[in-house]
Prior knowledge:
This protein has one helix spanning 38-42, and strands at residues 28-29, 31-34, 48-51, 71-76, 84-90, 100-103, 117-118, 121-122, 126-138, 141-154, 157-164, 166-174, 177-184, 204-208, 216-217, 221-224, 227-233, 239-244, 250-254, 261-266, 269-273, 279-283, 285-297, 303-309, 316-319, 324-326, 334-339, 350-355, 361-366, 375-379, 386-390. By secondary structure, it is an all-beta fold. 31% of the residues are buried.
Amino acid sequence: MEKKAFFGFIVGFGLLLITSPALTQDMQWLQYHSEREAQRIVGDMGSSYSELFTEKPQDVELPEFKNPGPFFAKWSTSMTEAGFLWMTFDRSKKLGQLDRMFIDSNGNGHLNDEAAITAYRSDQYYSYFGPVKVVFEGEDGPLTYHLNSRLYNRDERKRLYIYPGGWYEGAIEVAGKKMHCVLIDQNANGAFNDISPEPYRCDRIRIGKKGTQDTRYVGNFIEVDGTLYRLEVAKDGAYINLTSADDVKFGDIRVSETIKEFSAGGENGLFKIKLENGTGSLPVGRYRINQWTLEQKDEKGRRWKLLGSGFSRQGEFEIVADKETKLSIGEPILSNLALNTSSSGAGYSFQHSLRGQRGERIELLRNGTRPPAPKIRIKSKDGSYDKIFNLKYG
């Protein structure tokens, strides 16, 4: 049974990119904070991970372990010359989880001068540590950073997940207006100024009212109150600098007029574009689509919304100065129903998904909530079997 949704003309809205002259700002300093629940407090924090191994690293002095068979890991960080810090894990008892951690917190390449850090919580498969303090050597002296970690230990598979345990925030001034800024080490590598075409590899910044959740990529530019600025972020996150961006070259994008909201990001930053009749503009550079939405009311007045997100490289495009780039997004949407081949017994299970033209995930909402799961009709070739079943989310 096929279902179709038709979406008419939608009036677009969003944030307008204006290249009005902006006064040059001085370095604006932020305050460092650290918490065990940093992810819950700040939100939008990413992570990194490392596989654990048993081979002892060469030329590294090790601590005394309580039990044989320690595990080792490398935390990748751009804040050290080697590009990583050694970590090792031990058990406090003969059986149970790996609940003792040692980390090269002073960056001298050894672990024998480090104190054991005990997991603050352990369960059947995980041990939790943090916030763990490490000190990097900066140009102007030592720099403090905190990380939180979760160690997965089940059978032969062991993996360490690392999350930022600290962040920077504070009051700044933008064009004479007081605002609040938050810096997030999105990729959990110790630095706060990572710029990348890959969303998960670039850090995050918020500028606006205190408590705002409008999170942007750290990039070459940032739009604040309709004005475009060049953005500089200190590697250690201690300050930001905003300067005028009135010499930037732009190009245009064109999408379906039914698209209501559109955002894209890359090394230039993350932009939410105001669309007029399906057209908008971006600074010259390469981007990846972040998200799009369109809405329509049906004959009963119910509001239906499609939201496309989770783009891979199929969502990449380039903006060229004074030229128009056309993007095929929005309708049509592919509805895919697949038989779960791992089903056992007399029953069968199916998986239903919605995908966009560029492979993006599609979320369908009705009046702001997810509608009931669709039905599936199964009919034999000769018509002797003909039944309708209700699919379930899960």
